[in-house]
Amino acid sequence: MTAAAPLVLVVEDEPKMRRLLRVTLESNGMRYAEATTAREAMSRAQSQRPDLIIADLGLPDGEGIDVIRETRRASATPIVVLSARSQESEKVAALDAGADDYVTKPFATGELLARLRAALRRGVPRQEGREPTVFAVRDLHVDLLQRRVTLRGVETHLTPIEYRLLTALIAKAGQVVTHADLLRAAWGPAKLDQHHYLRIYMAGLRRKLEANPAQPVYLLTETAVGYRLIDE
Amino acid sequence: MTMRSYLPAACIVVLCTAVNWPLSLWLAPTNLAMVYVLGVVAVAARYERGPAMTCALASALAFDFFFVPPVFTLRIDDTQYVITGLALVVVGVVISTLASRARGATRAALLAREEQLRNSLLASLSHDLRTPLAVIAGSASSLRDERGRLSQAEQDQLLETLYDEAQHVSLTVSDLLEMTRLHAGRVHVDRQWYPVEELIGAALERCKRQLAAHRVQTQLDPQLPMLHVDAVLLEKLLVNLLENAAKYTPAGTLVSISVRPEPGTVVIRVEDEGPGLPPGAEECVFDKFYRADREGAVTGSGLGLSICRAIAQMHDGSIAAGNRPGGGAVFTVTLPGQQQPPTEVQ
């Protein structure tokens, strides 16, 4: 277990964005390290062993996505990507390359910190026999051993596919899960391009878990990327 | 002009000659000249004057050489063919001149339109960016220099203003980029099948902050078909309509989205309880840089609704604005909703 404040490595070439992130992170109990190029990022990720990496996608000396791929090859350090809106395909590429989540610029600090907390939670190495057996957020309660889903104490029956989708989202609660990962979790590798199947089943899951499926509270849509189950 | 456009012109002459060769067994040479005229017209329509006139001249020579007796000489025994040949050249000159003039006029009109767009773009930019930037700089300098003299409430207010205005600048810039991309036709429409509630939910989630002070209601018909749309673009359309509603209506009022199927289409309505549209503005709200209230406190790029219209049209749909009988504005988006996706999975 990491006792001290988590060390966050910020990979960003814009000095002003680095300053903002430094202030935000340090005032929220995290330690800050920085890299301004892809090359520096890769060497620091090795030498300083950060608990979390925040990576900007566009770097002067290489694609941010290469940093993600290289880092992921060497370690399981959680990576959160900073990206502009209308870069959905780049977000998906970054997630496929091994990033854990993304935050869209311009971001509100609260949103950024929530994503970082979720990523840090996922990054804490699980001790043996300590796999979580229960997931609970607001009125939703999922017993992963007994496969029981309750809403405000009332049991809800899910189909096997709906349950597989829900557990895939729980495994990365608070973080985005891509369409491809959810398709793989629910149907295996055969249907990876059948995104509309996924949407039909997610709609079914929402009808069972959300008070109003058109204003979801638990299962949020990340348009053109995937879905996110809230965890706080 | 490149030499390359002379090559097709030459090819056309050769082609016309090849076509005429067998025809010359049955047709009088004057009729064969008509085939050359067709060739000249084709070249004039597609290329500049130079190739077109060269084509006309070469056609006249080929006509004379191959088809006017005595063949395989440039001699002309029968004077009527002099007229035919000359007519061929004149047709080439006239048509290529007309065609190039028409092209010039179209290009000039296009340039004028672009120029006009650029001008209004610049005017809009300077106003819509300068105002919030001035507010941002002002608020920030007050906070930096006079923090000691400001009450907590005043500081909070300045910080809130800072955030809102920065958000606004960011939105204006992304609207401008979006409009430029849509205008340049560089947007690839990636259509997939979506349940309507997912699209509505995603848009509402993105507008959560702006709509925090409003009541939001959704009414979705249970019989809705799935929509075959680009979710990123459709979300942008809905977000623009919702942000508009949030911007132009007082806090506490209702913003409602309803979706119902109609034969062959799906109709999405975004309604509010605000002051509604000025009479006669139902169409021009979709013009670029139109703003309902130029002097008022509400700021915007004036591009939001024209982006909405562009997106609706890219989906073979439409968007219209109007006022509700009881007051408030209503925006109606109509999208094709006939076909259904390939269903059932295991």
Structural summary, described in words:
The complex is a heterodimer of chains A (232) and B (346). Helices cover 40% and strands 24% of the residues of chain A. Chain A has 232 residues and is of the alpha/beta class. Chain A folds into two domains: 7-123, 3-Layer(aba) Sandwich (Rossmann fold), CATH 3.40.50; 134-229, Winged helix-like DNA-binding domain superfamily/Winged helix DNA-binding domain (Arc Repressor Mutant, subunit A), CATH 1.10.10. Chain A is globular. The mean pLDDT of chain A is 89. The longest helix of chain B is centred in the N-terminal third of the chain and has 66 residues, at 80-145. With 346 residues, chain B is α+β, with helices and mostly antiparallel strands. Chain B has two domains: 3-107, no CATH class; 194-336, Histidine kinase-like ATPase, C-terminal domain (Heat Shock Protein 90, 2-Layer Sandwich). Chain B is elongated. A five-stranded mixed beta sheet of chain B has the order 2-4-5-7-6, covered by helices on one side. Chain B has a two-stranded antiparallel sheet with strand order 1-3. Classes of the chains: A alpha/beta (232), B alpha+beta (346). Chain A binds chain B through residues 85-86, 88, 106, 108, 187, 191, 194-197, 199-200, 202-203, 206, 212-216, 220-221, 223-224, and chain B through 166-167, 170, 174, 177-178, 190, 192-198, 200-202, 204-205, 209, 216, 218, 220, 226, 231-232, 235, 257, 341, 343, 345.
| Backbone CA Rg of chain A | 18 Å
Number of helices of chain B: 8
Please give the CATH class of the largest domain in chain A.
Answer: Alpha Beta
CATH-defined topology of the largest domain in chain A: Rossmann fold
Q: Which CATH architecture of the largest domain in chain B?
A: 2-Layer Sandwich
Overall spatial form of chain A = globular
Report the top-level CATH class of the largest domain in chain B.
Alpha Beta
Helix content of chain A: 40-55%
| Oligomeric state | heterodimer
Strand line-up in the sheet with most strands of chain B: 2-4-5-7-6
- Could you list the spans of chain A in which at least 5 consecutive residues all have pLDDT below 50? none
The CATH architecture of the largest domain in chain A: 3-Layer(aba) Sandwich
**How much helix is in the residues of chain B?**
55-70%
Q: How many individual domains of chain B?
A: 2
Query: Which H/E pattern describes the elements of chain B?
Result: HHHHHEHEEHEEHEE
What is the string of helix and strand elements of chain A? EHEHEEEHEHEHEEEEHEHHEE
Task: Please give the alpha-carbon distance between the first and last residues of chain A.
Answer: 22 Å
CATH level 4 superfamily of the largest domain in chain A: Response regulator
